[in-house]
Design brief:
By secondary structure, this protein is an alpha+beta fold. The chain has two domains: about 5-70 and about 140-315, Bira Bifunctional Protein, Domain 2 (BirA Bifunctional Protein, domain 2); about 340-435, Rossmann fold. It contains 13 helices and 23 strands. The protein has helices at about 5-15, 40-55, 75-80, 80-85, 145-150, 155-160, 205-225, 270-280, 305-315, 350-365, 380-390, 400-405, 425-440, and strands at about 20, 35, 60-65, 85-90, 100, 120-125, 125-130, 140, 165-175, 190-200, 230-235, 245-255, 260-270, 285-290, 295, 300-305, 320-325, 325-330, 340-345, 370, 390-395, 405-410, 415-420. The chain has a seven-stranded mixed β-sheet with strand order 3-9-10-16-13-12-11. A five-stranded mixed β-sheet has the order 20-19-21-22-23, sandwiched between helices. A hairpin with a 6-residue loop joins strand 4 (about 85-90) and strand 5. The chain is globular. The two termini are about 25 Å apart. The structure holds glycyl-adenosine-5'-phosphate. The site of glycyl-adenosine-5'-phosphate has 19 residues, from strand 10, strand 13, strand 16 and helix 9.
């Protein structure tokens, strides 16, 4: 298996097969904005669902939230984003292109060689206006992170659930940052989605929980099939820590442009609840039944990007394998992530075969995202499914009409087995969930 794939191949496959399109393409696109196509939307939903299942559904110390994107402007003053969420920006005096000065390795404009201005701070939050006027008083921001929705709802969650410390709130949703430099496909864009957890703990237990979450999150990627040699942990140096963080680890992935952040896990201490108490005037503390004291919980925050995880899973799954005299392109997605779990393929377009195949197709759809294809040769159709990562294909041939059996073909091994139609659902389910539960590659989980 190859270990590193060029970004161009993934961009081209994504475009060709309908994972990702440039936004507003018929108007020439909009810089660093992307639309997820029919396959992309499935993969993206599956990434979020796998995260939700492992982080919320399977844990007894987590609950979910879906906070609004627009929040009270004071939130962003309390959080430090109005004062400090900025990048140093320089502008070329000739071509007026802008650059993040920390990205530059040269002292002149990389585009035209022109002279650069002194750096000035550029706030990354998108501003908009609420109500009919555009007065300063009506300014609201598109949230640059989902995290604040969880901090300001701490008391609401505490009072409406029976959760006691330690417990966490999880949320997925859109965030917006007016990034100066974007690029590397969907790696850094201005509109993106996050999957964030704010885990509230008693002070003094924070180091242990921090360690727990670093491991938990690292293993989540491994369980979903990401190759260990493509993942690493990197601790932030003291001078690199964000203003709120006591400690932080990045989970980095070996992207084509080099090791880059996939997710950050921070120990935020009591920074957030103290700040929101100060600015809102509402106390956000917790009564500790054991010590009979009121305490301000510490927060451990694992913060992941949906789009970055999507890209990493796509890159990691991509492979080109020799196949007779040709090369087959295959996405070795974990079954939980694959856009389609099953494809139904009648061997030919003969009416009897198509009727039988469509019946099976209708039968499987309520259970799994299922594709149907009756065009071109069966070999071509298998390749097409391999290229979009469908783990299992079901082929209906003339023999099927006589013996009521069909062929299941596995993407990874290309192995084929014949099974009775009336057992098809059970066998597909075992094959698919075998991987979901045991994390074993398909077909070895027999
Ligand atoms: N609440 C903490 C926080 O937002 P962050 O390191 O700024 O921390 C967390 O962002 C994650 O969100 C990143 O690890 C990355 O996966 C994703 N992310 C951040 N900015 C992004 C951007 N411009 N485009 C795509 N993903 C981004």
């Amino acid at each position: 298996m190859s270990t590193k794939v060029e970004m161009e191949k993934i961009v081209s496959l994504s475009r060709r097969r309908g994972f990702i399109f440039p936004s507003s393409e018929i108007y020439g696109g909009l810089s660093s904005c992307w639309d997820y196509g029919p396959l992309g939307v499935e993969l993206k939903r599956n990434v979020k669902q796998a995260w939700w299942q492992a982080m919320v559904q399977e844990r007894d110390d987590m609950v979910g939230l879906d906070a609004s994107i627009l929040m009270h402007p004071q939130v962003w003053i309390a959080s430090g984003h109005v004062a400090g969420f900025s990048d140093p920006l320089v502008e070329c005096r000739s071509c007026h292109q802008r650059w993040r000065s920390t990205d530059l390795k040269v002292t002149v404009c990389p585009a035209c060689g022109g002279e650069l201005t002194e750096p000035r701070q550029f706030n990354l939050m998108f501003k908009t206006f609420m109500g009919p006027t555009e007065a300063d008083a009506d300014v609201v921001y598109l949230r640059p992170e989902t995290a604040q929705g969880m901090f300001v709802n701490f008391e609401n969650v505490l009072n409406t659930t029976r959760k006691r410390l330690p417990f966490g709130i999880a949320q997925t949703g859109k965030s917006f940052r007016n990034e100066i430099t974007t690029g590397n496909f969907i790696f850094r864009s201005r509109e993106f989605e996050q999957m964030e957890i704010e885990f509230f703990v008693k002070p003094g237990t924070d180091k242990r929980w921090f360690e727990h979450w670093v491991n938990e999150r690292f293993n989540w990627y491994l369980k979903l099939g990401m190759k260990k040699e493509h993942l690493r942990l990197r601790q932030h140096a003291k001078d690199e820590l964000a203003h709120y963080a006591r400690d932080c680890y990045d989970i980095e992935y070996l992207f084509p442009m080099g090791w880059s952040e996939l997710e950050g896990i921070a120990n935020r201490g009591d920074f957030d609840l103290v700040q929101h108490t100060k600015f809102s005037g509402k106390s956000l503390d917790y009564f500790d039944e054991e010590t009979k004291e009121r305490i301000v919980p510490y927060i451990i925050e694992p913060s992941a990007g949906v789009d970055r995880s999507f890209l990493a899973f796509l890159l990691d799954a991509y492979d080109e394998e020799p196949d007779k005299n040709e090369t087959r392109t295959v996405l070795h997605f974990h079954a939980a992530l694959a856009p389609y779990k099953v494809a139904v393929l009648p061997l030919s377009k003969r009416e009897q075969l198509v009727t039988q195949a469509k019946k099976i197709y209708a039968d499987l759809r309520p259970l799994w995202m299922t594709d149907y294809d009756d065009t071109q040769s069966i070999g071509r159709r298998y390749r097409r499914q391999d290229e979009i990562g469908t783990p299992l294909c079901v082929t209906i041939d003339f023999q099927s009409l006589e013996d009521n059996q069909v062929t299941i073909r596995a993407r990874d091994t290309m192995e084929q087995i014949r099974v009775p139609i009336n057992e098809l659902k059970t066998i597909l389910s075992a094959k698919l969930s075998g991987e979901l539960l045991s994390n074993q590659p398909l077909w070895s989980a027999k």
